[in-house]
């Protein structure tokens, strides 16, 4: 599949996530909803990994570049952020290992369930 179609699929999923976020009575980041939609489509085999492999690989390989504008944007607020440096560091130091632990546990649980069903390809 060509890269334009792959990008169209990925951005289409993002648009679906934005649409869902608009209609929910509570706030959920559309990026999270888009990832859930993409996961659902891949899990149900409606969308095959090969259909988004090249474009997805491009985004993963260049992920650091996408964060540069956000980091540079925070430089405008250095004075404001100085007041919150200690709480920010505590939150970061506590939540980062927590996210790693929960992610690892989730992957292990999924692999165990897939092996139990006999559908794991790992």
TrEMBL record:
User: Acetylation among the record's keywords?
Assistant: no
Q: How does it sit in the membrane?
A: Multi-pass membrane protein
Question: Where can this protein be found?
Answer: Cell membrane
Which keywords belong to this entry?
Cell membrane, Membrane, Transmembrane, Transmembrane helix
Q: Where are the transmembrane segments?
A: 59-78, 84-107
Q: Which domain of life is it from?
A: Bacteria
This protein's GO CC annotations: plasma membrane
The cross-references to InterPro entries, in alphabetical order and at most eight, read: LrgA/CidA
Query: Would you tell me the protein name for this molecule?
Result: LrgA family protein
Source organism of this protein record: Acidaminococcus fermentans (strain ATCC 25085 / DSM 20731 / CCUG 9996 / CIP 106432 / VR4)
The lineage is:
Bacteria, Bacillati, Bacillota, Negativicutes, Acidaminococcales
């Amino acid at each position: 599949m060509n890269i334009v179609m792959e990008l169209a699929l990925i951005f289409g999923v993002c648009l679906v996530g934005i649409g869902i976020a608009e209609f929910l009575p509570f706030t959920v980041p559309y990026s999270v909803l888009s990832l859930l939609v993409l996961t659902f489509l891949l899990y149900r085999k409606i969308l095959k990994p090969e259909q988004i492999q090249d474009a997805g690989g491009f985004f993963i390989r260049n992920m650091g570049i996408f964060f540069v504008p956000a980091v540079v944007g925070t430089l405008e607020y250095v004075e404001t952020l100085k007041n919150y440096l200690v709480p920010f560091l505590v939150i970061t130091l506590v939540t980062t290992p927590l996210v790693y632990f929960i992610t690892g546990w989730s992957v292990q649980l999924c692999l165990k369930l897939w092996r139990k069903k006999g559908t794991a390809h790992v």
